[in-house]
Write the structure tokens for this entry.
Amino acid sequence: MSPAERYSRAVRAAAWFVLLAAFAVLTALSASDRPALAAGASRLVKIVVPFAAGGGTDLIARTLADDMARTLGHPVIVENRAGAGTILGSSAVAHAAPDGHTLLMASFAHAVNPSLNPKLPYDTFAAFVPVALVARSFNIVVTNPDHPYRTLQQLIAAAKTEPGKINFGSFGIGTSAHLAGELFKALAGVDLVHVPYKGAAPAITDLLGGQIDVIFTTSASVAAHIQNGTLRPLAVTSAERVALYPDLPTVAECGVPGYVAESWYGVFAPANTPRDTVRTLAGSVQHAMHSQAFARVKELEGLTLQGGGPEELDAYVRAEAERWRSLIMAAGIRIE
């Protein structure tokens, strides 16, 4: 081999060494951004959804999980643990190891359960650490088009003329649909009869059949019925009008000042999860919220993105818990 050939080979070898060293540095830097997991823990990250598969909370969790797996560098799965009004799944997370591998996809029930059930198997504000506030969503007030009231104002007038004659359905005692109706009763000064169901599907079936008069339900559960004219929307329960129904007034605009009833979605981890791990998980959730896949979910579910970190989620849930506690106590609502 000539000197020139030996020199060329040495240069190539040196260049490869530099490239490999640079790759090792970049890999180390990337790994440093991932959560510090407990020694010996499974690399699997699990998001517990305290509802059955197929609902809005489940869809949101699964969409977040897909993107989080890429940013965290670990597989992220969703586990559905429905039961006891979200208490079963929430309890599983409350008692899980605080290593960043088990998360809770929480929603409206998380804030109201302490007031509804004094015998929770965990302390809601001590057993969890907030990670990220994902989004808020509105409910929509709908009625059967065969009923005479075409506006919410007309429904209020009819309810005041004949107290106790008009009823409203819900997905069960203490659900967002139930408490939205109770808040409406309190602020509008009307007497409506509550008819609880075991889920949204049977309640909407009876609304379509004329067995109940009105329901304060999620947009996704009635969007198709509104589109084909089998249900009539009267108002949205949010503080402001929404892009999905720009011509539909808010309940407050219809003569019920101060009325706001929103659902929300947030991620929690078990208490004592390391702060650096929480911070990394929060960043991963927020990255997932801005993915193309989540944009489609946002449109389907009528979500308003929040993008808040641990402090924002904690403040929001504590305010919601206090606001609904007052109504629950005044109405004497209990689940035990």
Remarks:
- The first helix runs from residue 3 to 32.
- Residues 138-254 form a domain with the D-Maltodextrin-Binding Protein; domain 2 fold (CATH 3.40.190.10).
- The chain has two domains: 45-135+266-331, 138-254.
